[in-house]
Amino acid sequence: MKAVRLLCIWCAVLCVCSASFCLCSCTRRISGENVIEVPTDNSSLDGGSDYSSDTKASSESNFVSSKASVSAVSRVSAYKGAASITYVSAEPAFAESLPVSLPDSSASDYSSEASKAEPIEEESFSEPEVYEEPSEIVIPVDPVAYERVQNILSGELKKSSVELDVEQLYQYPVLPTGCESVALTMALNYLGGDLSLTDVAEKYLVYGYDIITSFLGDPFEDDGAGIFPPGLILTAQNYIDENSKSLAPIDTTGAALKDLFKLVEGGYPVVVWSTSFLYDPFSIEEEDIVLEFSGVEYPWYSNEHCLVLSGYDTLSNTVTVNDPERGVVVYDIDRFEEIYDLMGRMSMVIVEK
Q1: What angle do CA 31, 34, 37 make, to 5 degrees?
Q2: Which class for 219: exposed (0-12), middle (13-18), buried (19 or more C-beta within 10 A)?
Q3: Strand pairing report for 36-37 and 48-50
Q4: Where do the domains of the chain lie?
């Protein structure tokens, strides 16, 4: 009889523990502390087909980690940058779309108050604040590289299909919110670089409190917020200054997707801002977060994602991308263009001077 009682008590204890564990797990998931469930009934999602057999299965779940955490949203919501962005050396062809104020094109010196630094510690973001930024951040524009890009974009697309052999790198599990660093790494390595997965994030990435010109948060953690083209150009310049002075980064934000095909045709992979799995942009806030910088609005969404445009096929109406989350993936051009446009047509390319 004692044995039966002991067995009953032990079973009751197990049931209580199991219930507690399930409750904690559900609470953590619902709170959005780590991941947020992506709607599976997105009627406008055309999706993409996997192009490589070694695509990581863990990235094929119905959850998107990376930029969707509550603390990442708090960081972006707290930012109210007052710095101005200035492009020097040449007037970009995309001036009407670029988030810049253009100075006298005779200026040629590269300088920036933004600098490489250690990733921001989590404790720094315990309470949202309004952060002070340097009064001026200068973005380099090499005149020779700029002219090369301008000539390519103003030309005609000659080939119906091109696919660049870009070596695939995966952000998980090391850089859960470092898609921009990994995308830049793939582009630089294609152009002759020899970067490891973490070199950009550890040595060259610009860290700060301004998501437009620096990485906000820590790409090695689940709640990093990200970085936009001006900041990734500064990051690329940091690498180029130390390793390959024959290259130059150019901000192609504002260029139409089909114009970016011309850069791919010319042998240049393009870093593009999109969304994870091409889902519609969404925010876990009640309202979308829009950051204004130098008179230009930057939308930031919880599922913001960065990848490399490495191929296109106008006959099959598809694009090929190197996705730090999924691998080499083929998407429908129309769907990819729709998301690219919704994300503000943000892109950059690295070319020879």
Answers
A1: 70
A2: buried
A3: unpaired
A4: 50-352
Q: Which CATH superfamily is domain 50-352 in?
A: Cysteine proteinases (3.90.70.10)
CA dihedral 237, 239, 241, 244 (to 10 degrees): -110
User: CA 191 → CA 178, 188, 202, 228, 230, distances in Å?
Assistant: 20, 5, 20, 21, 20
* Beta-carbon count within 10 A of 307 CB: 26
**Per-residue confidence (pLDDT) for residue 138, from 0 to 100:** 82
> Quick one: CA dihedral 316, 317, 318, 319, positive or negative?
positive
Q: What is the pLDDT of residue 7?
A: 44
> CA 48, CA 122: separation in Å to the nearest integer?
35
Report the Cα 208 to chain-centroid distance in Å: 16
Q: Which residue has the higher pLDDT, 143 or 64?
A: 143
Torsion of CA 346, 166, 277, 270, to 10 degrees: 10
Chain segment 13-41, per-residue pLDDT in tens: 444 444 444 433 332 222 233 322 323 33
Tell me the C-alpha distance between 84 and 101, whole Å.
8
Distance (Å, whole) CA 94 – CA 352? 19
Distance of CA 138 to the CA centre of its chain: 21
Residue range 173-214, pLDDT digits in tens: 999 999 999 999 999 999 999 999 999 999 999 999 889 999
For residue 186, the SS3 value is: helix
Helices (H) and strands (E) in the chain, counts: 8, 16
Peptide bond into 173 cis (omega under 30): yes
Of the candidates 72, 54, 120, the one whose C-alpha atom is nearest the C-alpha of residue 305 is 72
> Considering only CA atoms, which of 146, 143, 140, 135 is closest in space to residue 294?
135
